[in-house]
Amino acid sequence: MTSADIIAMTQQYQMGNYTRHPVAFVRGEGARLYDADGREYLDFLGGIAVVLLGHAHPGVSQAVSRQVKSLVHVSNLFHVPVQAELGRVVSGATTGGKVFFCNSGTEANEAAIKLARKWSADRGREGAHEIVAAEGSFHGRTYGGMSATAQPKFHKGFEPLLPGFRTVPFGDTKALEEALTDRTCAFLIEPIQGESGIRMPPPGYLPEAARLCRDRGILMVADEIQTGLGRTGSILACERYGVTPDVVTLAKGLANGLPLGAMVAAEEVASSFGPGTHGSTFGGNPVCCAASLVVFETLLSPGFLDEVRRKGDLFAEGLRRVASRRKDIREVRGRGLMLAIEMEGETKEIANRCLASGLVVNSTAGNVLRFLPPLTVTDGEIRQGLSILEESLPREGGA
Ligand SMILES: Cc1ncc(COP(=O)(O)O)c(C=O)c1O
Question: Looking at CB atoms within 10 Å, which of 246, 286, 321, 364 has the fewest?
């Protein structure tokens, strides 16, 4: 099938809920993708921060294939060694809390919302069910995730939302202090806001938010679905801000592209999820867990995260060099390999031109270009991507 055939078939039989680029990918290798017509692309989006170790990672492929041949699924009514092992690894690599496995980011946040309310109810905190979230956040598409997502454009037409959510401006400690009341059970926060354009927390904001939550007996829930798992150069972005949240949600790169999500909660909080309180048929599926063990083995191997930080600096430096030659780049920002440029105008057409020249990048928040390459991207690929990007930017003075 050619790309055109695939696109036509998708359009005929699938719902139109995605704005898809007219490209059909059939194969990947490392940071490279290949379309149905044989064209090669450099992937600086990585399935939106998912393909941490690159496409067709040999270790992941081998682990998945071995697991598929031995055991694909049993119910969570039983124990499975690969899931048991991954629980140990996820807990040890993050906050030391207890782990619940699900299949996606929105499910991990849904679990966190339920856990926070249940924990509050278990402590007899009458009426303390409110979740505070930050403006510009993105927490997923289920009713819980969407209600926590403080961006009206995602709510339009889907009201009424779940009650009990309150929003505060991102980065405003004073507003947060006022919003955390005796009705609040949790503050849900992305350490760096991904979907709204790699918005960075002001210095001191996250530690101060953690202190406020701690002093008031409110849970700090870090949505590390996009920022976590080495993306910013540490396993959790919170680490880089000196913060240990009570609850952490993970997904995206957790199994390098296979569907797996997780929520990790401090033991005392986790105990509110007793038998029958929450669950998932597929959550913690053995095949996904096998892939995830390879992800952690790689992330935790000596020097790997140092390399992510070094390559992030190299990439950011390159972006700043491009920005220094132009007037229409307002800001270069991000951490590790979670980077962005904010432009004066819309970036959609620039992303389209990059794609036409063989570079996959993402336009988000209207005027931002976002870069989330595999963490295994090479220096040469970073330089090549920067050069395609620069050639795809509008001619200064023109459109
Ligand atoms: C910070 C954050 N939270 C939650 C989600 C939702 O994850 P999923 O699409 O796996 O449900 C995303 C997805 O982009 C995200 O970036």
Answer: 321
pLDDT given for residue 85 in this prediction: 98
Q: How far apart are CA 335 and CA 237, in angstroms?
A: 9
Whether residue 223 has its Cβ less than 6 Å from ligand 1: yes
pLDDT at 399: 44
- What is the band of 396 on the pLDDT scale with cuts at 50, 70, 90? confident
Answer yes or no: are the C-beta atoms of 338 and 225 closer than 8 Å.
no
The superfamily CATH assigns to domain 3-56+303-371+380-392 is Aspartate Aminotransferase, domain 1 (3.90.1150.10)
Q: Give residue 263 CA to ligand 1 midpoint distance, Å.
A: 13
The helix (H) or strand (E) run that includes residue 147 is helix 143-148
**pLDDT one-digit tens code per residue, 98-136:** 999 999 999 999 999 999 999 999 999 989 999 999 999
Q: Which atom of ligand 1 is nearest to the CA of 109?
A: 4
Is residue 334 pLDDT above 50, yes or no?
A: yes
Q: Please state the φ and ψ torsions of residue 189, each to the nearest 5 degrees.
A: -145, 135
399 DSSP 8-state letter: -
In ligand 1, the atom with minimum distance to the C-alpha of 107 is 11
Q: What CATH number labels 59-299?
A: 3.40.640.10
